């Protein structure tokens, strides 16, 4: 079998086209969706992602700002910035780019964001709502993955989804969303024994481990759907996923590339969440 590629960049462009129309309609009602992105320090990867978010906002006619803060900012100063954004009626969405410097208590920062403005879907209230299947802001990468599956009418109910990775921002929530859609979900992680024997059972394999090209055809059942969440920068500057694309493509029915896969969808779901926030849809 040669896998069909699910191109996240193309799907994003389609979705952004209809969001652009929606933003224009909101403008007519005097609602101007606005995203504030907080960037602490000088991590080049973070800067590049944050610029991508700003660019995508502009593409759909949505306003956004990047609030740049020094690496040396204190916990209290950062909490003050968030408190200002929480109060600012112009601001519908707040995103604090991760990772944060080591001296910052990340969890306290996330919990300081008003859940109604938490367009990343990282606040424990929104995670709890997601777990209980209520309408809320879904975290952007898991939400984007589900959209990619839906775009090809890939069945989820009754399918065995195996997630490699259990981070709070990708692995755990994507498993939960798949469970909400009635998949049978198994998590693998660094302590898992004989991982191949488990991943080979997967109808849908989600790979979020953070190791370049780790997953090849030996981990994959014939006809499986393979979603690659990895973003690894190689020494030559190129990007590659956690999946060995050419090898996996021999067995998969559908596969997502890196770049132009899950990454662009993450940004697109952020825009969708910001529009949702502007409409006041999450209480
Ligand atoms: N609070 C917070 N929210 C996030 O959503 C968040 C974060 N922190 N920290 C880092 C991760 C990573 N992330 C990406 C988004 C888009 C691409 C993306 O568009 N990638 C392009 C390539 C971009 C390039 O060439 O560098 C692609 O895969 O085609 C990648 C990674 C969001 N994250």
TrEMBL record:
Its EC number(s): 1.5.1.5, 3.5.4.9
Domain Tetrahydrofolate dehydrogenase/cyclohydrolase catalytic intervals: 6-120
Any single Gene Ontology cellular-component annotation: cytosol
Positions of the Tetrahydrofolate dehydrogenase/cyclohydrolase NAD(P)-binding domain: 139-279
A family per Pfam: THF_DHG_CYH
Alphabetical UniProt keywords: Amino-acid biosynthesis, Histidine biosynthesis, Hydrolase, Methionine biosynthesis, Multifunctional enzyme, NADP, One-carbon metabolism, Oxidoreductase, Purine biosynthesis
InterPro entries named in the record: Aminoacid_DH-like_N_sf (IPR046346), NAD(P)-bd_dom_sf (IPR036291), THF_DH/CycHdrlase (IPR000672), THF_DH/CycHdrlase_cat_dom (IPR020630), THF_DH/CycHdrlase_CS (IPR020867), THF_DH/CycHdrlase_NAD-bd_dom (IPR020631)
Domain of life, source organism: Bacteria
GO-annotated molecular function: methenyltetrahydrofolate cyclohydrolase activity; methylenetetrahydrofolate dehydrogenase (NADP+) activity
Pathway: One-carbon metabolism; tetrahydrofolate interconversion
Catalytic activity: (6R)-5,10-methenyltetrahydrofolate + H2O = (6R)-10-formyltetrahydrofolate + H(+); (6R)-5,10-methylene-5,6,7,8-tetrahydrofolate + NADP(+) = (6R)-5,10-methenyltetrahydrofolate + NADPH
GO biological process, one term: L-histidine biosynthetic process
Residue sites binding NADP(+) per the record: 165-167, 231
NCBIfam families cross-referenced by the UniProt entry: PRK10792.1, PRK14186.1
Subunit annotation: Homodimer.
Family recorded in the similarity comment: Belongs to the tetrahydrofolate dehydrogenase/cyclohydrolase family.
Purpose of the protein: Catalyzes the oxidation of 5,10-methylenetetrahydrofolate to 5,10-methenyltetrahydrofolate and then the hydrolysis of 5,10-methenyltetrahydrofolate to 10-formyltetrahydrofolate.
Family annotation (HAMAP family): THF_DHG_CYH
Name recorded for this polypeptide: Bifunctional protein FolD
Native species: Ornithinibacillus bavariensis
Lineage: Bacteria, Bacillati, Bacillota, Bacilli, Bacillales
